Amino acid sequence: MNDLPDEGTNGRRILEHLARHSELWFTPSELADELDIPRGSVGTTLSRLNERGVVRVNYPTLLAHG
Length: 66
What we know:
50% of the residues lie in helices and 9% in strands. The chain contains three helices and two strands, in the order αααββ. 20% of the residues are buried.
């Protein structure tokens, strides 16, 4: 089973951004601004990606790392 999001989705865009900057952590607001994705969508997408085990999210600050 492939746990990666489909091409062109917000999830894939976030994953690709985190992979390009793997040494950094990002807040949902930073990801929303840098990728032009609505803030609410970023939070929801990060939660799903975290559940799948493809990103690490540091709760409660919601810092994301690829």
